[in-house]
Design brief:
The chain has 2 helices and 8 strands. By secondary structure, the protein is an alpha/beta fold. The chain has 2 domains: about 60 residues, 2,3-Dihydroxybiphenyl 1,2-Dioxygenase, domain 1, CATH 3.10.180; about 60 residues, 2,3-Dihydroxybiphenyl 1,2-Dioxygenase, domain 1.
């Protein structure tokens, strides 16, 4: 039996801001708030342990230094890459430069706190709801 990724934890300065952003990007909802200020977001109909991992936005005062060693990749589900790029930029993402050549088939973006993520080209089917 193998393991499965059930949640991703991202240290952030403003869990509220990032929860709103990532909920809009992924179609997630707030699932839980912890006493330490962490907010867990995920699919409304599945929550923790479902087919998609949840994201825990954990508050920190530590500054982000350099490029993230692990980042999130997203794919459009109901539009092409160009239309999804415009939607993500309107939601608060911004373009990021991590040394790409400009010939990549993906876009490197950053969330409102500067955490890098990539918008890939290929359109994928949404995860079916139970």
């Amino acid at each position: 039996m193998a393991c499965r990724i059930t949640e991703l934890v991202l240290d952030v300065h403003d869990p509220e801001l990032l929860a709103r952003f990532w909920c809009e990007v992924l179609g997630y909802v707030e699932l839980e708030r912890a006493d330490d200020g962490a907010i867990e977001i995920g699919p409304a109909d599945a929550g923790f342990g479902g087919p998609q991992p949840t994201i825990v936005l954990s508050p920190t005062d530590e500054p982000k230094t350099g490029k993230l060693r692990l980042h999130i990749d997203v794919n459009p589900t109901d539009r092409d890459q160009d239309a999804e790029l415009e939607r993500l930029l309107a939601a608060g993402a911004r373009r990021a430069d991590v040394g790409q050549t400009g010939n990549e088939s993906w876009h490197v973006l950053a969330d409102p706190e500067g955490n890098e993520f990539c918008l890939l080209r290929r359109r994928v089917e949404p995860v079916p709801t139970p």
